C-alpha cells in the first residue's frame, strides 16, 4: 500500500476548490494508508493555508496526473454524478482560488478610487478646440492693436496737414515767397590763395579736350578703327593729347598707397618711415613687420636655431607672395625655375643669423624647404583638379 500516497479531496469550507493532497497531510483521523476509503471525512493540511481544514476523499491513487485529470472533470460535472457521493442534491465545486474573490477585490478598489475613462479621440478634439480658441484670441488681439495704430497714425497725419496748410496760408498772405528772382543778389566767394589750388583765368589758353577727335572703342577699351594716319601725323596727335593732359592737369594726383616691403630707395623709405632690414642692403620693411617676426610665446626659445629658421620663413611671406613659391628656387643655377631676388634673400639670411644661433647654411636650407613644400602642394592640387 505504499503506492497509495495521493488522494483527490473536496474541501468542505467555502471558497476552497478541489485539490490533490498527500495522505501524510491528513491529521485527523491518523490511519494506516490502507484504511483510508473513498467518502471518508478527514482534516488535512492545505498548501498555502495554515492549520487543518475539513475535506472529503473522492479518490485515492498513485498517479498525480490521473488525479488532476479527474479533478478537472469534476469541476465541470455535478458532484451527484460522482460514484463516491451519497447526496441527492447536485452541487458544482467553486473554481476560483482561495482567499479574497477577485470580483470582490475589484469592486472594493472601484469603490475606493472610481476611474473615469476618457476617449483619446475626444480628448484630442478638446485639446484642438482649446488651441484653436487661444489662436483666435491672439488673432483678434493683433487686429485690435493694428486698428489702434492705424487710427493713431491717421490722427497724427491729420494734425500735420492742418499745421502745414496754416503755415502755407500765412506765407502766401505775407508775400515773402512772391519776390521776383531778378531782384535777388547772388554773391560768389572767391577762392583763397592756397598753394594746393591753382587760379584759373578765363583768358588762359587751354586746349579743350572736346576739340580733339573722338575714337570709338569696344567693351574692352580697344579702338574699333585702325589708325591708318601717317607716322608723323600720329606722333603729332599723341603730342597734342599729352599737352592737353599736362596743361589741364587731368592726371595731377598723389599716390597715397603705401609701398610694399622690398628693395626701395632711401627717400621713399624715409617718407614712409620704413626700416632697413640689414645695414647697406637696400631692403626695407615696416617696423610692425619686424616686431611680428620676432614675437614669441616662450621667451626661452628666443635666440635658438629654430627661432632663426622661423624668422626667415616669416620674412619670406612678407617680401614675396605665396604664388611665387611653387615656381621659384634660391639657387641661380636652377634650370626651369625662377630665382627669388638674391638681394632680398641674402638680407633675410643675414638678419636671421644675427638674431639666432643658426648658421646661414641652415637658414638657407629652411628657406629652400619652404619652397619645396609649396611646389609639392601645388602639384597635388593640379593632380586632383
UniProtKB/TrEMBL annotation:
Residues 84-137 are annotated as: Disordered. Residues 280-378 form the BEN domain. GO terms for molecular function: DNA binding. Residues 104-137 have a biased composition (Basic and acidic residues). Coiled coil: none annotated. This is BEN domain-containing protein. The lineage of its organism: Eukaryota, Metazoa, Spiralia, Lophotrochozoa, Mollusca.
Amino acid at each position: 500500500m505504499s503506492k497509495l500516497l495521493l488522494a483527490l479531496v473536496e474541501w468542505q469550507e467555502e471558497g476552497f476548490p478541489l485539490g490533490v493532497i498527500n495522505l501524510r497531510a491528513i491529521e485527523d483521523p491518523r490511519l494506516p494508508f490502507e484504511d483510508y476509503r473513498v467518502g471518508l471525512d478527514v482534516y488535512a493540511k492545505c498548501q498555502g493555508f495554515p492549520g487543518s481544514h475539513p475535506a472529503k476523499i473522492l479518490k485515492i491513487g498513485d498517479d498525480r496526473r490521473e488525479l488532476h485529470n479527474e479533478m478537472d472533470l469534476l469541476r465541470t460535472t455535478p458532484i451527484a454524478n460522482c460514484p463516491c457521493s451519497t447526496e441527492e442534491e447536485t452541487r458544482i465545486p467553486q473554481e476560483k482560488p482561495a482567499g479574497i474573490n477577485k470580483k470582490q477585490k475589484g469592486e472594493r478598489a472601484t469603490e475606493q478610487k472610481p476611474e473615469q475613462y476618457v476617449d483619446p479621440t475626444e480628448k484630442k478634439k478638446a485639446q484642438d478646440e482649446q488651441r484653436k480658441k487661444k489662436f483666435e484670441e491672439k488673432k483678434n488681439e493683433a487686429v485690435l492693436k493694428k486698428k489702434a495704430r492705424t487710427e493713431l497714425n491717421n490722427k497724427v497725419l491729420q494734425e500735420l496737414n492742418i499745421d502745414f496748410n496754416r503755415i502755407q496760408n500765412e506765407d502766401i498772405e505775407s508775400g515773402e515767397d512772391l519776390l521776383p528772382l531778378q531782384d535777388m543778389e547772388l554773391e560768389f566767394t572767391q577762392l583763397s590763395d592756397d598753394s594746393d589750388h591753382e587760379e584759373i583765368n578765363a583768358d588762359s589758353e587751354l586746349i579743350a579736350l572736346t576739340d580733339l577727335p573722338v575714337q570709338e572703342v569696344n567693351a574692352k577699351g580697344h579702338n574699333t578703327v585702325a589708325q591708318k594716319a601717317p607716322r608723323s601725323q600720329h606722333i603729332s596727335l599723341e603730342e597734342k593729347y599729352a599737352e592737353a593732359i599736362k596743361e589741364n592737369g587731368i592726371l595731377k594726383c598723389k599716390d597715397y598707397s603705401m609701398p610694399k616691403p622690398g628693395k626701395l630707395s632711401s627717400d621713399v623709405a624715409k617718407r614712409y618711415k620704413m626700416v632697413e632690414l640689414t645695414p647697406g642692403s637696400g631692403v626695407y620693411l615696416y617696423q610692425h613687420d619686424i616686431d611680428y617676426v620676432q614675437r614669441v610665446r616662450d621667451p626661452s626659445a628666443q635666440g635658438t636655431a629654430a627661432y632663426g629658421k622661423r624668422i626667415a620663413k616669416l620674412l619670406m611671406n612678407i617680401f614675396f607672395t605665396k604664388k611665387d613659391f611653387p615656381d621659384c628656387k634660391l639657387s641661380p643655377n636652377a634650370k626651369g625655375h625662377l630665382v627669388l631676388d638674391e638681394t632680398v634673400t641674402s638680407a633675410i639670411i643675414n638678419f636671421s643669423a644675427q638674431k639666432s644661433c643658426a648658421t646661414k647654411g641652415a637658414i638657407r636650407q629652411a628657406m629652400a624647404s619652404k619652397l619645396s613644400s609649396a611646389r609639392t602642394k601645388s602639384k597635388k592640387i593640379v593632380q586632383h583638379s
